[in-house]
Fold these 2 entries.
Entry 1:
Amino acid sequence: MTVLILTSEADVTADLVVLRLAEDGVPVVRLDPADLTAGAGLSVEYGREAGDGRLSVGGRRVDTAALRSIWVRRPGDAAAHAAHPSAWLTEESAQALYGTLRCSGARWMNHPDAASRARHKPWQLRIAQDSGLAVPTTLITTFPQAAREFVARFPDLVVKPVSGTHPREPARAVPTSRVPPDADFSAVAFGPTLLQRRIAKRADIRLTVVGGELLAARKPADPEGHPDDVDVRFAPSVAPWAPARVPGRVADAVARYMKRAALAYGAFDFAEDADGLWWFLECNQSGQFGFVELDTGQPIAGAIARWLAGAPERPVRDAGGDRLPAP
Amino acid sequence: MQPFTLHFARPAVELDSCSEYAYDRGLQLNVLPDGRIAATDHATLRALGTTTSTAGSKTHFDD
């Protein structure tokens, strides 16, 4: 049984897992959907045949019935590398590939339906709150007056993208940023704006969840740091990430979150306040983990490899439809 | 007419890590110019910032 990894060639973080699987003798096929029709191919027949598909890439072939798991890591847009790429060809190729894989019976990290839903930050905040995690008071609005009233209630705010995406043309990054006290909120009318009460943090927490395994890392904030340095990804680093213990209540709440979200993998970001309380910021369903493993030595790649190498779920053709992964 | 959130945007830092290693289709791994597997060279990975939480931001939004 083979593990299928959908990711780009340049994804060296995926290499960490490919190495672990190779060490354990688990067959792997690595495929970038962007290469469909340009180095990668697929074929599937329905009707009299069982509907099992076949994938080929780099001289390797695998039947979809022989897949034990599928890791959706950093896949490119389907057929993006084709000789004549187009939005139509991308849609055609994505439907063919993912539609075929949905019938495979392999378990997913993460299932496309679960992944799509879990990317929505408003949904994340609601599920986190319902799961028992501490969530900073947050407003998402296009009404400038609502923003003004919110800042009157919570004078110390941060702003961040609702989607987490970064604008292109020109390429820009939008870190979580502190809102200045004299901010003019009239531009809130030009785009949904996520405002959140700033947590005065003494550390950032990255909790990586792989199946039932919790691997937490903590990075202390600079006590002398400027309060405007809100986003750990962009702030000066004064200490490496170090392994951390997960409080029992947080572990229970995270387990509920993962079950509600039907995720097999999630990278949670928390801000730890002066009392040691972990405030939920977001959960990236395909969050990076290499930087944590390098700093802490925590075997995250190994945990992912073990999960991927686990037994496949019951073939979905017996169930009459596809399924979300078991929590 | 710029949305409020974009008032806090800054120029993106484009990583050029891809030129430091190349994908080997046989191994299904990236290798360094001297033939070593890139993922086993943690010093190089740190230097390139390839696995950090901003590395994926160029084309993906799950950091």
Entry 2:
Amino acid sequence: MHETSLVLSMCAQIRELAQKEGAQGVATITVRIGELAGVEFEAFSFAFEVYKKQDPFFAQAHLKIEKVPARLRCLLCGHETQAQGLTPCPACGQWGLEPITGKELDLLKVELILPEEGKDHV
Amino acid sequence: MCDHCGCETHQHHEPQEQKLKEIELEKSILAANEQVAQKNREHFRNKGIVVFNLISAPGSGKTSLLEATIEALKDEIPIAVIEGDPETERDAERIRAKGVPVVQITTGGACHLDAQMVHRAFHQLEGQDFRLLFIENVGNLVCPSSFDLGEDIRVVLVSVPEGPDKPVKYPASFIKADVFCVTKADLLPYFDFDPEEVVRNAKRLNPKLRTFVLSVKEPESLKEWINFLKEMAAQRA
């Protein structure tokens, strides 16, 4: 359940940024997580929902997860494939597929809620 | 005070058009951990220390392998150990009994170590002279693989009784490792575990893996591993 740690780390980063921007809340958070990142998407969403309930700054935040499929490249012939699981290269038949995508664990963008003009919110 | 969120005003809870600002970040979710890990790595390199992060399920024999490794190397290369466990000093006591400096991190239930914990533990080792540092992660084959600690070499271990399907079931841990050790090889006659097949599957996931099949009960089987550690220490010297 390290997804909880990931959510805490993500929210700490966003909070820091939001404070610099003078935001009063967070509307959307977009993350990109690869299939090979060792992260359970549902556990990540669940951990975020739990966190939201405890931190009013994130109460309105909506989490979007962009899932990245694993793409593998053959170390021998250079062929690229989206093959799943343990498999030899579909082009040359040799073993040695190396992941080129799928390990992502990135915070892509956030949409911050700024105070209404003229109504200074402290 | 507003009982919604503790702020001084209610205005922002009323329905209204929100003023939004989108910011592109493209940063790692674990950016904070990665920064500390990078500092750890530089710090270790400057001191000429080679650092290993040992990852496996509970009971794969990480501590036993460390005990045997210390026994084999202690007259040649000074070693220190950082132990990670949810609770207790038990593993640290076992290592301490071998006469090397050790710091126990108790995570209080957390399923992995992070770079900040290692940074703090490393400070407790200051003043000690060592060239190899082994960090024994919390027993868990999933979570620790997401957290860079600043190690040079990540070692993943699977013991024979755990079964041969671990690389296929837990690919993330193998994809991110540098070394794969099959442990408790003395039990091979009693289990349906073909070490060649397991190693082959692990290498299919990660062709760059360096692999060892060993048992602490059979000192001969440790030779290759011990030589590898000597090579690593010599490269950094």
